[in-house]
Amino acid sequence: MRGADLLAQTLKAAGTSRIFSLSGNQIMPVYDACFELGIEIVHTRHEAAAVFMAEAHAQLTGEVGVALVTAGGGLGNAVGPLFSVGESETPVLLLSGDSPVAQDGRGAFQEMSQCAVTAPLTKLSVRPTKASALGHETARAIRTARSGRPGPVHIALPFDVVEADAGTTEVPPASAFARVPQWLGDEDAKRIAQAIVSAQRPVLICGPAMNRTRSGDLTERLASALDVPVIVMESPRGLRDPSLGEIGKVLGEADLIVSLGKRIDFTMAFGAAQSFHPNASWIVVDAKTSEFDRAYLNLGARLKMAAAADPVDAASQLSALGKGATSHAEWRKRVAERLAVRNPSGPGAGNEPITSAALCEAVQRQIKSAAGSVAVCDGGEFGQWAQAITSADQRVVNGVSGVIGGGLCYGLAAALAKPKHKVFALMGDGTAGFHFAEVETAARHGAAYVIVIGNDMRWNAEHQIQLREYGPNRLIGCQLSDARYDLATAAMGGHGEYVTRLDELDAALSRAVASGKVACVNVIIDGAPAPAGH
């Protein structure tokens, strides 16, 4: 048995049925081993796209997403999305081919210190030097990716190691892949529960790993059990996230803020007193104790308690303790009403320019008609409209990192993971250009989903900055063309729609869904600044 076979068998034992990859010399033994076991390889056109797809796959399935790339530039191309994966708190395993161990230091083809490149962006980065170690190291990496604050891990695969004889090494047992729980101490759990009971306007803030797509109704059960508002934050816009309505006003009134895995960072205005109730007390629960230092730096004496625990485990413990005699029902109702506030927009006339809001509302009508749905929202100005207006059974967004360009890849992974769902990937025309070649990947793999491009023919986020900071006479470098993304999609085997009038939009979206192919609805819009929460 080769090292590659042990690796593939270990992945299979961990529940991996699909890998996202771009081929290369050093990983051909792994391809061969996956073929033997029936592990599907989704062959992409760019290594970064493979990592983005693995990120979305993990979020939508609960599995560890796996991306497989080759050495040298292959790994280099895959590094950027690791930042997104880490900030979105998603368990992803990046496997990369590497030069042979026997040629270390001799100037081997594509020799580089891969772990030195990936270590700052991952929870674990290792380079096994023996074939027999591949099973154990893969299990360790998967367990690490899942445990504590979820995130990316990396294994470099030297060519001579995957080719070497692994002997009679056994595949690790199921327990080797399992998430390691990290519970609150009993006294800590009781202190937090009592603090919530004692507060008049408590709020629990959770990080992206606890959103509905990944954690189901966990936060709803927590809110009900403790009689407290629970808010999940997963946007770089933070306190101005348009999908959270008047979150800034909510937190400005709260007298107790309990962070369950939500970093006290720029998205939380660094905990600045002027952005929160001046007398609010803070409690931070996090799997990483290093976050306590950050919290204390930003909060000072307002930080009343810090406890080490996996936020998911802590949520389960706190739910079990239940609520006290104090009722927060009216406060919860007020918070829910404020989070539901959205910027109003009129429907517009059929011959008027299509607004970002009108386009997103049309997509939402399609989502509502679906038996099952996934909404993918990329970033940028149009992406913020999409995040504020669209709501589906499951959602994938560009996340706290603010990285853009992954949306088209997320949509492809969603279509493969949820083939019975309607999948809509909403993005601006700037964002669409990053990985548009993956439309061909989608057509080749039969991934049917709808790419909705809000096309204002510019990088609108930067355009708005220039307009605001430098004035209308100093706009430079942000214009794009009227490229026909719809025709390009059709040329690559998909379905294309081009829309310039509002009264054409609903029918175009319906045709795109009915095509049963990867489809692009290229909609010319009147670009506007993103909506903002308050």
TrEMBL record:
Organism: Afipia felis
Name of the protein this chain belongs to: Acetolactate synthase isozyme 1 large subunit
Domain Thiamine pyrophosphate enzyme TPP-binding: residue ranges: 378-523
Keyword Glycosyltransferase: no
CDD domains: TPP_BZL_OCoD_HPCL, TPP_PYR_POX_like
Thiamine pyrophosphate enzyme central domain: residues covered: 190-296
Keyword Amino-acid biosynthesis recorded: no
Entry keywords, A to Z: Thiamine pyrophosphate, Transferase
Similarity comment text for this entry: Belongs to the TPP enzyme family.
Protein encoded by which gene: ilvB
GO CC terms in record: acetolactate synthase complex
Enzyme class: transferase
Residue span(s) of domain Thiamine pyrophosphate enzyme N-terminal TPP-binding: 1-116
Cofactor: thiamine diphosphate
One example of a Gene Ontology biological process annotation: L-valine biosynthetic process
Single Gene Ontology MF annotation: magnesium ion binding
InterPro entries: DHS-like_NAD/FAD-binding_dom, THDP-binding, Thiamin_PyroP_enz_cen_dom, Thiamin_PyroP_enz_TPP-bd_dom, TPP_enz, TPP_enzyme_TPP-bd
EC number(s) recorded for this UniProt protein: 2.2.1.6
